[in-house]
Every structure is written in structure tokens, then in C-alpha cells.
Specification:
With 478 residues, the protein is mostly beta strands. Helix content is 3%, strand content 36%. The protein is built from 2 helices and 29 strands.
């Protein structure tokens, strides 16, 4: 494989290799923790500006890279909290759907939410949402001052849904009330932003949804509910996921009874109560729900045993029966035997992500340092991997780093001068990567055939050089 290096002996005369042009992928993996730089724009064609609720100017941009490399949001906030003294200095990527991304900025005591919309041929936009204290009951009056409280505070329970027909979007948070002897109930805090020809209300609306009992589940299954992720399904539903208890699907654009109904679907796996430190503290490390081709819901579970033993299983939700169909499973020896896996750490995969456009594509990270005993020497490098489950081969590999400024290089010549602290913060504390299609909407003079024009890539594209026999994904292993 061709190797290119940047000359680093004299930084004033450094030779930067010509960047490789990557074909535009219809989706990217967004890092949920954004980057703060008050003097740098990531990519000109992605820039959008707005003001916070306190009147401070902000500017955001994106740096896109084809998966498995990660893409990142960049924030310019000259009047924002100090990066050295505040944990609120950095932006958060909360949710994404189609051409829209929901962002959060915190400037105590205010929490602001913005919707970034890609240009779709014009310039991108960045819109500040109304504060969630301005809220009314569904079909009722605005809440009185005594009833008002700050909502939209649980980042994991907030989702965004884009409706392409009229360019409207909905932002919603699901919260649980009651417990500790009180009846358990749920609240939906919803904002529907109108499209150009719509007369919909821009005020936050508070709904009290009913749980559909079509599967005959018992209400006690929801007494310990805690949302881990929100996934948009098609252009109609949001799916709230508790990786121990199941899914709640709701049609948030609908008003009346339809918009106040949630359908419960149990997961096809048991709750791992007896497996502490095997993903229980951070279930996203071993479980993932995603959507392929817009509306096909898939669930991935990595069931870990002692040492490095594991079984990775994939299911697809049947939209008609609302039952899970098992696609297949891979055991440790199966995955490690994939073509191109020889140099990767033989440890359980973590933070799995299904491809948004390829039923055979699966992404995950591996890091030897995550599975080494205390005091033992280990390589803490974090590798992001794409595999073809049908071709039984590694397609590509990328090294995760704080800035991902490494040059294109061979497998054994990757630079090691980046800070991996952000990698540990972003992934090992419940901030798994967020799949998004925002990259496929060209803006301004953006070339639709090029995803990543101005920066070299650390991605190793192995798919073109590896054989990809159509060996079936192991099905229904006893």
C-alpha cells in the first residue's frame, strides 16, 4: 500500500501530502462532543451563524470524513465560557435526521438548542429554538408560571425528526414521572417547527402519552425506564430506546390521540443484571439500535463472556408484526478470522453502529487498553473498524484521535502524536457516535463528489484490495 508522510523536521518548510479525495458517502459518524476553536473554520461550505439566547454571536462548521473515520462539529464562540475553566465551553451534538442536526450550548444558567440545516443547494442555516419554559399542554393553555420548569435537560432522551414533504421538523424529549410509590407516567415535550407553507405552532407542547399495550407487556417493565438513545425512523416516528427494557415508538408530528400514543416493543435479549462491567454501566458499549435505508430498524448486541469471549448478534424489526427477526451472529473466532483482521486487537468490539445504507455493513471500535488489567502495559490506541458481514472482510480502519490530523499512511506507519483523552471521554462515558446524513446535502459551491477535500485522511481503505467472497453471515447458531 502506498505510503505518504509529511516532512516534520522543519515545521516552516513542511511538505504536506496532496489529500486523497474520498467519494461522498451518504452518511457520516458524528462525534457527539464538538470541538471549540474561536479562530478556525472546518469547511467553508458548511458554515452557519446565529446568536445565543443572551445575544452572543456563534458560528459553527463541520469537518466531514467517510466512515469509519469520525466527523466533527467546530464552534467559534468568542463570548462563550472559557475552555480552560468551564466544562460548558464545548458544543454537544444531540441528535440528527436527514439534513438537520440538533446542537446544544450551555451558558449558565441558560441551555440553548440550535437546529443546523444543511444547504441543499443554498447556504446552511442555524436556528435558535425557543426556550422550553414557554410551553403549553396539548390542546390546552400555556402553563402558568408555577407549573413551568426547565425541560430538555436529558441529552439522551432528545431526538429530532425531519419531514421532507413540507420541510418541517420536530424536536422532542421523553421524560418519566412518578416512581417511588407513585404511578409511573411519561411526558413528551414537543416543538414542531413549521415549513414555509405551514401554520403550525412554534410553541413547545406538553403531551402525556399512553403506552400501547398491543404486546401484552406489564407496566412494571417501565418503572425503571431510562432512555439511552433516540433514533428517527422514516419521516414519521421517533424511537426512544432503553437498552435494558425496550423501545417506545411515537408519531410526534401527529396531533390528538395519535401524537400522544407510544408503542412499546421489547428487546430480543435479556437484561444483563448478572454481568456488571460488561456494558451495564454504559449499555451503548455493547448494544446499539440503528436504521438502514431510512426505515429498517436493526438491533446489535455484543454478549460478553469471560476474558475476550463474545457473541455479536444482529436482529431486524419486522414492521408488520413488530417482532424481531434474527439475522445472524458472529462469535469471537468468526470475527477475528475475517480477511484483514490480522493486525487488529483481538478484544470484544464496542459501540457497534449499523450502516445507514448497507445491510451488510457494521462499524465498531476496538482498543486493547480497554481490556487489560490494572497496571499492565497495553496499547491504548482506539481503532474504528468497518466490516462486511457477508463478505467476511474488514473494509476499512481509522485511528480515532482528538483532531484526526494524521496523514494517509500504511497500517504500521500511523503517527502517534495525537491526544487520545477526548477519545476516552467521548466514547467511554456514554457518548457513542451519532450516524447522520447531513453530509449528503451539498451546500454552496460544495462539490457533491468529494466528501473531504482540504484535509488528509487517516482512513485505511481496505475494501478495494481485499477479496470479498459472498460467504453467508452465520445464521441461528445453536
Amino acid at each position: 500500500m502506498e505510503t505518504q508522510h509529511a516532512e516534520t523536521s522543519d515545521p516552516t518548510t513542511a511538505v504536506v501530502p496532496r489529500p486523497r479525495l474520498l467519494p461522498r458517502r451518504p452518511w457520516v459518524l458524528l462525534d457527539r462532543l464538538g470541538h471549540r476553536n474561536d479562530h478556525v473554520i472546518a469547511e467553508d461550505a458548511t458554515v452557519a451563524s446565529s446568536r445565543t439566547s443572551t445575544g452572543k454571536d456563534i458560528q459553527v462548521s463541520f469537518r466531514f470524513a467517510a466512515p469509519p473515520a469520525t466527523s466533527r462539529l467546530y464552534l467559534c464562540w468568542l463570548g462563550g465560557p472559557s475552555k480552560e475553566n468551564s466544562s460548558f465551553a464545548y458544543p454537544r451534538v444531540i441528535a440528527a435526521h436527514a439534513d438537520s442536526v440538533l446542537l446544544q450550548l450551555t451558558d449558565p444558567p441558560r441551555i440553548d438548542y440550535f437546529v443546523y440545516k444543511a444547504g441543499s443547494g443554498g447556504p446552511p442555516s442555524l436556528s435558535l429554538l425557543a426556550q422550553s419554559t414557554d410551553i403549553r399542554y396539548s390542546g390546552g393553555p400555556t402553563l402558568t408560571r408555577g407549573d413551568q420548569r426547565q425541560r430538555m435537560v436529558d441529552r439522551k432522551a432528545i431526538g429530532i425528526l425531519r419531514r421532507r414533504a413540507d420541510h418541517a421538523f420536530a424536536v422532542a424529549e421523553l421524560s418519566k414521572t412518578g416512581g417511588e410509590g407513585m404511578p409511573v407516567a411519561f411526558e413528551l415535550c414537543v416543538l414542531i417547527s413549521p415549513g414555509p407553507a405551514s401554520t403550525s405552532c412554534k410553541t413547545w407542547e406538553l403531551r402525556h402519552p399512553q403506552i400501547r399495550d398491543a404486546k401484552g407487556f406489564q407496566i412494571r417493565a417501565l418503572t425503571c425506564w431510562e432512555t439511552d438513545a433516540v433514533v428517527p425512523v422514516g419521516g414519521r416516528s421517533l424511537c426512544w430506546v432503553d437498552y435494558y427494557h425496550g423501545l417506545l415508538l411515537g408519531h410526534v408530528f401527529e396531533s390528538g390521540v395519535g401524537g400522544s400514543m407510544l408503542t412499546y416493543v421489547p428487546l430480543p435479549v435479556d437484561t444483563p443484571w448478572a454481568k456488571p462491567d460488561h456494558g451495564q454501566e454504559c449499555p451503548e458499549a455493547s448494544r446499539s439500535l440503528g436504521v438502514v435505508n431510512g426505515d429498517t430498524v436493526r438491533f446489535v448486541n455484543v454478549d460478553r463472556g469471560p476474558l475476550s469471549v463474545f457473541t455479536l448478534t444482529v436482529w431486524t424489526l419486522n414492521n408488520a408484526s413488530m417482532e424481531w427477526d434474527k439475522d445472524g451472529e458472529l462469535r469471537a473466532a468468526d470475527l477475528w478470522a475475517f480477511s484483514g483482521y490480522e493486525h487488529l486487537p483481538h478484544v470484544p468490539p464496542e459501540y457497534p453502529v449499523v450502516s445507514m445504507d448497507d445491510p451488510d455493513g457494521l462499524f465498531f471500535l476496538v482498543s486493547e487498553g480497554r481490556h487489560t488489567g490494572v497496571g499492565a502495559a497495553a496499547d491504548n490506541t482506539v481503532w474504528l473498524v468497518e466490516v462486511d458481514t457477508m463478505g467476511r472482510a474488514v473494509r476499512s480502519v481509522a485511528r480515532y484521535s482528538k483532531e484526526e490530523t494524521t496523514t494517509r499512511t500504511s497500517w504500521l506507519a500511523i503517527r502517534d502524536d495525537d491526544d487520545d483523552d477526548l477519545a476516552r471521554v467521548s466514547m467511554f462515558h456514554g457518548l457513542a457516535f451519532l450516524p447522520s446524513e447531513v453530509s449528503k446535502y451539498p451546500s454552496r459551491s460544495d462539490d457533491p463528489t468529494v466528501l473531504h477535500r482540504d484535509r488528509p485522511s487517516s482512513q485505511l481503505n481496505l475494501g478495494s484490495s481485499l477479496p470479498r467472497p459472498r460467504v453467508p453471515f452465520r445464521l441461528f447458531v445453536e
